[in-house]
C-alpha cells in the first residue's frame, strides 16, 4: 500500500484499521438491537415479538396482501415470513383467505383480536422507541428518519441501477 492511499471510504467511514465504533453498518446493527431488545421486553405481556409485531402492523395497515408482498414490506425473506405468519395465525391474530384471482395464493388479514392487540401495543412501541432514542432530540429523530427512509426506499433510478448490476452478474 502506498502512503498516499486513503484508508477511508467516503460513504461508510474508515475502511480498515479503525474500530467498529466508526462503522456505519455496525452502528446501525447495534442501534437496531438496542431498540429491538427494548421493544421485546416491553411486548412480553402480549406474547408477541418485535418481528411478529411489525408483520402484524403491516397487515393491519395494508391488509389483504399476499405473503410475498408482506415479506417485501417488512424486509423478511420467504422462510422468515412464513414462520411469522404461522405464529400470528396460531395466536388468532390473522387469517388467510384464498385469493379469488389466484387459487395458489392466500390473502392475509388481521382478525379483530389482531387489530385490538396492535392498537393496545402501539403506545408500547412508541415508548420503546423513546427509551432507545432518548439521546436524540425531535429534530435529530426527524433527520434520522429521513436518512433511514432514503436507505430503505432508494429512488427509482437507484433501484433500476441496482437491478442492472444484478442482471450483469
From TrEMBL:
Gene Ontology MF, one: DNA-binding transcription factor activity
PROSITE patterns, per database record: HTH_MARR_2
TM spans (from-to): none
HTH marR-type domain sequence ranges: 21-153
Keywords linked to the UniProt accession: DNA-binding, Transcription, Transcription regulation
Pfam families tied to this protein: MarR_2
InterPro entries: HTH_MarR-typ, WH-like_DNA-bd_sf, WH_DNA-bd_sf
Statement: the UniProt record of this protein carries the keyword rRNA-binding: no
SUPFAM superfamilies per the UniProt record, alphabetical: Winged helix' DNA-binding domain
PANTHER family the UniProt entry points to: TRANSCRIPTIONAL REGULATOR, MARR (PTHR42756), TRANSCRIPTIONAL REPRESSOR OF EMRAB OPERON (PTHR42756:SF1)
Name of the protein described by the UniProt record: Transcriptional regulator, MarR family
Protein source organism: Paenibacillus pasadenensis
Lineage of source species: Bacteria, Bacillati, Bacillota, Bacilli, Bacillales
